[in-house]
Write a structure and sequence with these properties.
Elements (H helix, E strand, L loop, with lengths): L9 H12 L18 H16 L5 H16 L7 H24 L7 H31 L7 E3 L5 E3 L8 H19 L4 H17 L2 H21 L3 H23 L13 H12 L3 H6 L6 H4 L7 H27 L6 H11 L10 H20 L1
Antiparallel strand pairs: 1-2
């Protein structure tokens, strides 16, 4: 249907295909046992890159230099890898995520998308998140009440069971679904509140709670609080006050109920070993000049003997060193400055804040397409207004 829709140009079709393939982005095209590097999502993302590389040649020297430096350091890190196949796969995934974001950032003005097209893609994204939430709830019902297990299910201590649909990480699925929740929230907050969207948000929220991972849901309500805060700085009105009170109650109830499902936790602020991983990661990062500058790589001796830090900054420092971390930070800051007046910038902040609590941020495939769509939307909106 997407491919043969004559109303959409090639770029819009590719974006829609990327969004449609997101629920399956953590499995290969041949099934759950196949590595996600061979997912439909990655294949479509590569096709997208080939199309834009052919049609649009513009890329700044700074962006090109940044990508070359990162690529060079990632290749050099292979010299001390203990698992070559793992290192190659991680490097490919890292670049598949990063290059489309940087390149789209450079050519966004030339892409044949309007702000309305980008807005419709975001709505489409939220629909896919709702569909994923429904699938997870169906998986939960089958597993809990009928003892039928489908998809990825993780069993932990203290009777914790995490239903992950087709995602291989318990902490990742709520982050993906949380983006859909925030898209619907932002549309209701800045435009018109629709009853149908409230139902969609509740479906996503219930799925996020039953998944039992705290990272996504806590990060989501932090973002909602920030949206209210910055709105109050500009103007206080009764509608926003009522909405804020309702969402504070909803947030407290959701987080409290989720915590009650985690019998091994000593409260919502229990770090669950994260601080120990951060400390261990920083110890590896500062253990030598090589690790400080270039990192221990994706399969270095030290990183292979520990659980990867559940923090995007610490993980990047440990695996790729200070140089790559600075370059990525500079790219991110440029992106955020460019989108400072874009109301959907909160989706990106949500992804980053969530990344402070989960591992393997660069392998979270949903991040790439949302970075691109938000950036295109902000740019096209500025052009439409001018």
């Amino acid at each position: 249907i997407v491919l043969f829709n004559k109303k959409d140009n090639t770029i819009i079709k590719l974006y829609k295909l990327l969004i449609l393939s997101l629920p399956m982005s953590f499995i290969g095209i041949l099934g759950m046992q196949m590595h996600h590097i061979f997912s439909w999502y990655n294949i479509i993302l590569i096709i997208y890159m080939l199309v834009v590389f052919k049609k649009y040649k513009k890329i700044s020297k700074i962006s090109m230099l940044a990508l070359l430096l990162i690529f060079t350091i990632l290749i050099v890190e292979i010299l001390w890898a203990t698992n070559l196949s793992k290192s190659f796969v991680e490097i490919i995934q890292f670049l598949i995520m990063l290059i489309p974001i940087v390149y789209t950032y450079n050519i966004k003005e030339e892409l044949p998308l309007s702000s309305n097209d980008a807005n419709q893609l975001l709505i489409f994204y939220s629909d896919i998140c709702v569909a994923t939430a429904c699938s997870m709830l169906f998986q939960y019902i089958l597993g809990t009440y009928f003892n039928i297990n489908v998809g990825f299910i993780e069993y932990y201590g203290h009777d914790r069971v995490s239903f992950n649909c087709l995602s291989k990480g318990a902490s990742i699925l709520p982050v993906f679904m949380g983006i859909g929740f925030l898209i619907l929230f932002i549309r209701g907050f800045y435009y018109k509140i629709k009853f149908s969207n409230i139902i969609r948000m509740l479906i996503i929220l219930v799925a996020m709670i039953l998944n039992t991972s705290r990272s996504g849901i806590i990060s989501m309500f932090i973002i909602i609080f920030l949206i209210f805060f910055f709105k109050f700085v500009k103007k206080i009105n009764l509608k926003n006050i009522i909405m804020m009170i309702l969402f504070i109650i909803l947030g407290l109830f959701s987080i409290n109920y989720l915590t009650s499902l985690r019998y091994g936790l000593n409260g919502v602020l229990d770090d669950n070993g994260r601080f120990a991983l951060i400390y261990e990661g920083l110890s590896i990062f500062t253990s030598s000049l090589r690790n400080f500058l270039l990192g221990d790589g994706f399969s270095g001796m030290a990183i292979s003997q520990m659980v990867t830090p559940h923090n995007v900054i610490i993980q990047t420092l440990v695996q790729n060193g200070i140089i790559v971390t600075i370059i990525l930070s500079k790219l991110f800051l440029s992106y955020m400055v460019s989108n400072k007046n874009n109301k959907y910038k909160y989706l990106i902040l949500f992804i980053i804040i969530s990344g402070m609590f989960v591992t393997d941020f660069y392998a979270n495939a949903f991040s790439t397409v949302i970075f691109m769509i938000v950036d295109v939307y902000g740019n096209k909106l500025k052009l439409d207004m001018s």
